[in-house]
Amino acid sequence: MVRSGLLRALLLVMALLPALLCLVGVFLVDLVPDEESFNIALGTPTVYLAFILLAVLAPMAAGGGYELYPPEQLVAYPIRPRTVFAGTLLLAPVNLAWMLNVVALVLITSFASGPVGWGTVRGSLSVVAFIALATVGGHLLAWLVVGIRQSRTGRWLTWAVAAALGATVAFLVRFGY
Fold it and tell me: What per-residue confidence (pLDDT) applies to 108?
């Protein structure tokens, strides 16, 4: 629908920019000093945990995912919930926070893997599998919570679970665990 050739090229470059950043970052691993490489490796689990939290909380905050059409407009069309779920998964990469976290995961994994070689290839394959699993699992959990919240008891249950999680986090932070 974009008629300008320059604008099309710009949109294509913007779409390919995260992949380009990942590719350039993988080859810049050798430029990182050894002491910084160790510090980056120490921060790796935190970045993975942050991605899992993003993959679960973002679709949950969006009410189950990023829907293409509002549910009230789908009443006349026989679209299966499976199709709506697949659509939300396809729209996950459009989320800027998701995309930036993917770039961070790929870069930090390549730094932790060491110099470019088979370790980097294995690390890249592992991080792609992790990203897919976390994204699908996060959307699945978000849709499950949306389904549970359809009843009054489900809403009370989700609020009780959220309060218990909040109290647990507050306890852990307060007493330094």
Answer: 83
CA atoms of 7 and 17, how far apart (whole Å): 15
Neighbours of 53 (CB within 10 A): 13
* Residue 102: closest CA among 39, 24, 18: 18
User: In this predicted structure, what is the pLDDT of residue 1?
Assistant: 67
Q: Write the DSSP symbol of residue 31.
A: G
Task: For residues 111 and 2, give the distance between their C-alpha atoms in angstroms, rounded to a whole number.
Answer: 39
Alpha carbon distances (Å) from 81 to 6, 84, 85, 124, 136: 38, 5, 6, 32, 15
Within the chain, which residues score under 50 in pLDDT? none
Query: What are 152's two structure tokens?
Result: 């009054």
Q: What is d(CA 111, CA 37) in angstroms, rounded to the nearest whole number? A: 6
Per the CB < 8 A criterion, the answer to whether 56 and 137 are in contact is yes
Query: Residue 66's pLDDT is what?
Result: 61
